[in-house]
UniProtKB/TrEMBL annotation:
Transmembrane segments: 6-26, 31-50, 56-74, 86-104, 140-160, 172-196, 202-221, 228-247, 253-279
Organism: Paenibacillus woosongensis
Similarity field: Belongs to the ABC-3 integral membrane protein family.
UniProt name for this protein: Manganese transport system membrane protein MntD
Domain of life, per lineage: Bacteria
Length: 293
């Protein structure tokens, strides 16, 4: 039964991250998830200083607030003329450094379990049980991630056309009266929510990998957004299941193995994708060359 809960948890993370990752890849903002995962550290530290305890809910609220602040600062720097990658790098390194200072000054002797925040341990999700009125409802992480996935599906489903147009042509979306800035912050808020929701169960590193790799793989396989979203979720689910059994075989990190499998699937798509694969492009160039001879 433990295998089922671990794979289900990984699949929920992969589905949530894969859907959001498609829009991040199209908008060339794939590293926003990485920025959020690092810059929430001061939020965790401030939550501990305010509450005086390692209460998970309080720390997650603090992390979520800092995630939204991160998105706002990145957008502010971009509007000021700075390149996207530079804005992301400046904001997340600065906030991460502030978090390190806050912890070293105010919580140096307290175990805040930051390794769990960054790397997580998905193997332990089965032991953190949600109890409601004396009934065992199963792992709390599954419920929390399931609710997060439901929120993401609901928002994307309600505003699919707006998100699609903003991703492909923001200028046209603005001309049609769509509030581009609002949907940008809404998307970034969902990314922040999905990142924070996965902290204690799988860690931020797995979320960052699932935000980028499955969506990038799906991008190589299709030119239609609807199919890209579906392929990204399927690839993420395959990476979760395959990575778990790969880790079990090697007796290695489960999260690391999941991302490794996702990377291997990306490599296969990069080489053999019928649309954008290296082999397909080589064959196309060779056919064109033979036609000109």
């Amino acid at each position: 039964m433990s295998d089922f809960w671990i794979i289900l948890t990984g699949t929920l993370v992969a589905a949530t991250s894969g859907i959001l990752g498609c829009f991040l890849v199209l908008r060339k903002m794939s590293l926003v998830g990485d920025a959020i995962s690092h810059s929430v550290l001061p939020g965790i530290a401030i939550a501990f200083m305010v509450g005086g305890s390692r209460d998970s809910l309080l720390m997650m609220i603090g992390a979520a607030v800092l995630g939204l602040i991160t998105v706002f600062l990145i957008q502010l720097l971009q509007q000021g003329g700075l390149q996207s990658d530079a804005s992301i790098g400046i904001v997340f390194t600065a906030l991460f450094a502030i978090g390190v200072i806050l912890i070293s000054r105010n919580a140096a002797n307290i175990d805040l379990d930051l390794d769990c925040v960054l790397f997580g341990e998905i193997a332990y999700v089965q032991w953190d049980i949600l109890i409601i009125n004396g009934y065992n409802m199963g792992p709390a992480a599954v419920w929390f991630l399931g609710i997060t996935l439901f929120i993401v599906l609901l928002v994307i489903g309600l505003f699919y056309k707006q998100f699609k147009l903003c991703a492909f042509d923001p200028a046209l979306a603005a001309a049609l009266g769509i509030p581009v800035a609002l949907f940008h912050y809404l998307l970034m808020g969902l990314v922040s929510l999905s990142t924070v929701a996965s902290f204690e169960s799988v860690g931020a590193i797995l979320v960052v990998g699932m935000l980028i790799v499955p969506a990038s793989t799906a991008y190589l396989l299709t030119d239609r957004l609807s199919r890209m979203l579906l392929y990204s979720v399927i690839i993420g689910a395959l990476s979760s299941a395959g990575g778990y059994y790969f880790a079990k075989w090697l007796d290695a990190s489960i999260a690391g193995s999941m991302i490794t499998v996702a990377g291997l699937l990306f490599l296969l798509a990069f080489l053999f994708s019928p649309l954008h694969g290296l082999v397909a492009r080589y064959n196309k160039r060779r056919r064109m060359k033979s036609m000109t001879v």
